[in-house]
Amino acid sequence: MACAYPTVHALAEQRRGAPRGRVDPARRAAYDVLRAVDEDDAYVNLVLPPLLRDRGIAGRDAAFATELTHGTVRRSGTYDLILDHLAPKGIDAPVRDVLRLGTHQLLGMRVPSHAAISTSVDLVRTAVGHRPAGFVNAVLRKVDRLDEAAWVDRVAPPAEQDPIGRLSVEHAHPRWVVEALRDALAAGPTDGDALDDLAALLSADNEPPRVTLVARPGLADVGELGVAGAEPGHWSPYAVRLTEGGDPAAIDAVRDGRAGVQDEGSQLVALAATSAALDGPDARWLDLCAGPGGKAALTAALAAPRGAHLVANEVAPHRARLVAAAVRRLPDVEVVTHDGRTLELPPFDRVLVDAPCTGLGALRRRPEARWRRRPEDVGELVRLQRALLVRAVELTRPGGVVTYATCSPHLAETRGVVEDVLAGREDVTLLDATAALPQVPDLAGTGPYVQLWPHRHGTDAMFVAQLRRR
């Protein structure tokens, strides 16, 4: 996708006869990614890195392009309110992306006003044409009259009248997402003011996440990942957090598959799934929704010294290939491609269901997800999650344990799914999942569910529940 899109865009430029080559490569790369997100439903984290490599953008220019792209996409909802306030007659999508980039430089980055505005004018001339250049110049000059806080005061409802609406604009989250996160926080333990806790979570969602690596046990040691600016993870003994950026693929252990890039919350899911106490044998493990393979690789690495065999199932063939690549150095792993709802295999001792979800727990690293998801997506995903969990229980032998996880704290996708599956069943017992993660002390006494949070644990907002088949 990263290679195809610029080619199509370049052809469109040639048809318009627009001048080319007047914009610095970093800003042009950011613009091309925004157009791919808008037109092709692309993902920033998949499109931007190869585009930067293909165009030879590195060092400080690559860092600038990364912050400009991620920051613009992350805050685009709030920027759109400002732009629509200034241009109520409407803005064409390509011009809007130029204005979003310029607005982020003015309000969200320390780019001098003249540089942010003049480069945006050059960008629209190059990418769209001469006609909207004056419009872009005029709108951005108006944006520059106020700072971001003042603009929020102008376009957001007052906090005393509509605190959720205010937080939605201030922290650039759709209102329905803010409401869902508020409800999820309220369902667990809270300290202090609930709105302050919610604001802290939304603020954490807008902070670029630290790159976290996993040293797959038996293949690599955390010492091998100790590059400049690295430090141990908070909770996983296999985690290393990078503090100075850099390309993880430059690390030998990552490049050859002995280590990988994996959020510490995802590592904790694998640790919980492999440490829950069983009744009986512990030799057959299943990852029911294994793509793209990070949890499967860590699970397989933990299985190997215990003599356990892992079956990693993934419904999508291209994602199954990613799983196979992730586990290629690990013994006794079988990758299969099947719909997890109808998978037929002999019973397993452990089953992990890392179910497809809205991804509301990973908004830090997937900036486009908050604007792409809709409330109506939840119902369809819940039906899928429920079916996968039911099948996971059926594939678990008596005495075995199912670990259900989502990268979303939405109550319907988390405890709602678990409680629906438990209702009316006498062959399943809900376990206290916090017991499987004693290294996270603030989880103690909060069970039976585990809910991690970016603002409390520095991880994605992973949910974990565990069930034992009687």
Structure in words:
With 470 residues, the protein is of the alpha/beta class. It has 4 domains: 4-143, Orthogonal Bundle (N-utilizing Substance Protein B Homolog, Chain A), CATH 1.10.940.10; 156-194, no CATH class; 212-261, no CATH class; 264-469, 3-Layer(aba) Sandwich (Rossmann fold), CATH 3.40.50. 47% of the residues lie in helices and 12% in strands. It is built from 20 helices and 12 strands. The protein has helices spanning 4-16, 25-40, 44-54, 59-74, 76-86, 93-107, 113-127, 133-143, 148-155, 163-170, 175-186, 194-205, 252-255, 264-275, 294-303, 317-326, 369-372, 375-394, 415-422, 454-457; strands at residues 212-215, 230-232, 239-242, 259-261, 284-287, 309-313, 333-336, 348-354, 396-406, 428-430, 450-451, 463-469. Strands 5, 6, 7, 8, 9, 10, 11 and 12 form an 8-stranded mixed sheet that branches. The longest helix has 20 residues, at 375-394. It is globular, with a radius of gyration of 24 Å. Residues 1-21 have low confidence and may be disordered. Keywords: Methyltransferase, RNA-binding, S-adenosyl-L-methionine, Transferase.
